[in-house]
Amino acid sequence: MGNAQSPTSKNPRSERARRAFSKKELEDLHALFVSLSAQSQSPSKAISPSVFQSYFNIHGPLADRLLDLLTQNRRDSMITYDDLLITKATYEKETAGEIEEFIYQLCDVTGDGVLSRSDLEAVLASIHDAVFSAGDVGSGSSLDRDVLQVFLNAATFSKQGEGEEYSMSFGDFKNWCALLPSLRKALGSLLTPPDPGRPGFQVPQLQYPENISSDMLIMRKEYAWHIGGALSQSDTEEWKLLYHSAINGLSFNTFMGNVVSGDGPTILVIKDTEGYIYGGYASQQWDRQSTFYGDMRSFLFQLYPRASIFRPTGANTNLQWCAVNFSSDSIPNGIGFGGRANHFGLFLSANFDQGHTFACTTFNSPCLSKSSRIHPEVIECWGTVVKGVQNEKADLVKGTVLERFKEDRNMLKMVGLANSSE
Q: Model confidence over 144-160: pLDDT tens digits?
């Protein structure tokens, strides 16, 4: 039965590729081929480019380049089972370095052996169309070149070719992918059957009150997609707006009152008076303490004018910071990420009117803004929502001293009166 589902081939490359898959994977792949070839009016013989592109929802220059790699540049408009098997094995089953090399070649959409800025523009346009044309991910899903530019701004072109033009080396490409995990996931799953869990194609649903216009929000769907690339699938389903400075005011107490009402991680986003946009993902709830805490899921990010993700390096555990009402200069009042006290990777003072961002080894991140000293213009905080989990907490008045028992207990912790077992 297995041989009937997944026929053998005399092609040595095909036989080698076959050994990379399990029996079930081969049967599923052959069943997909039979289905797509039937839709191509060529039962069990070949898949047409139009059916292939429609099924995998990838179009434009990136799709054309993928077809060339699939068919070894035959350009006969026929994708055979061997083509699909060999490419999928190369794409998904080889070593990490070989897979990266394949994706590097894939992004060279002109096939001239030079990965140029125009190649990357075409790749980003194709990915943008594939991600944001699928399903309802909110309004304004048309191509926005300004947004795509922030992803290009994260790229380095260090390889000098003929003349004065520089291109992207393989090392440059790997670094670019590390800074843009959402893009790397999407480029690595183009031959994955499209479904809601397809890596790199998930866009968090942004939930916010009806009386707030989307124009007021810093967070937009492309930014959410970018940040979500560093998160698990469950944390990229839905995000809820917990705090917005234009609505809630620049108040630390109100911020704390709003964000602790959620049960999951939060995404802090800041737009400063210089126009730069950046922030941090807090894997644990904001909890008033006198020292660093958190875990290695936290990270810093940039959104504008450059998009990047900076994950923990393991150099230290100075991940999250949340302190208030301390009188010691060694315990700055406010919230932050990384670095050290008074020299954070990102820090907002408890007044929410100023802060700073320095290069730090915690995340191997640079200064996130134009200058180290920052003055926030807008502050947002989004909470991740795990669907199916019911929040039974009552709606309480935000920003008051007696809002929550949890907040009272945290204050007791800081003065040493809480139960030591907590």
A: 667 889 999 999 999 88
Let me know the angle formed at the C-alpha of 237 by 235 and 241, rounded to the nearest 5 degrees. Answer: 85
- Fold for 2-187, please state it: Recoverin; domain 1 (1.10.238)
Q: By C-alpha distance, which of 216, 215, 268, 211 is closest to 239?
A: 268
Cα separation, 148 vs 55, in Å, equals 25
Helix (H, G, I), strand (E, B) or coil at 163: coil
First and final CA of the chain: distance in angstroms? 59
Cβ-Cβ contacts under 8 Å for 419 (sequence gap 6 or more): none
Q: Other CB atoms closer than 10 Å to residue 88's CB: what's the count? A: 18
Phi, psi (rounded to 5 degrees) for 206: -95, 115
Q: Domain ranges in the chain?
A: 2-187, 210-414
Nearest to 216 by CA among 255, 261, 257, 248: 248
Give dist(CA 334, CA 323) in Å, integer. 5
Q: CA 384 to CA 363: how far, in whole Å? A: 22
Residue 184 buriedness (CB in 10 A; 0-12 / 13-18 / 19+): buried
Q: Outline where DSSP puts E strands in 273-375.
A: 277-282, 299-304, 308-310, 320-323, 334-340, 343-349, 355-356, 373-374
Does residue 230 contact residue 181 with C-beta atoms inside 8 Å?
yes
Contact 385, 236 (CB under 8 A): no
pLDDT tens-digit readout, 374-400 = 999 999 999 999 776 544 443 433 333
Residue 236 CA to residue 256 CA, distance in Å, equals: 23
pTM: 0.86
At CA 297, angle to CA 393 and CA 326, rounded to 5?
Answer: 70
pLDDT band at 98 (very low <50, low <70, confident <90, very high): very high
Q: Is the dihedral of CA 319, 325, 328, 334 positive or negative?
A: positive
- Residues forming a β-bridge with 244: 380
- Cα–Cα distance for residue pair 204/62, rounded to 1 Å: 24
Q: CA torsion 68→73→74→77, rounded to 10°?
A: 20
Candidates 345, 400, 411, 397; CA nearest to 374 is: 345
> What 3-state class would DSSP assign to 161?
coil
Note the pLDDT of residue 404: 36
Residue 340 vs residue 146, higher pLDDT: 340
What are the angstrom distances between the C-alpha of 196 and each of 3, 99, 134, 389? 31, 24, 10, 19
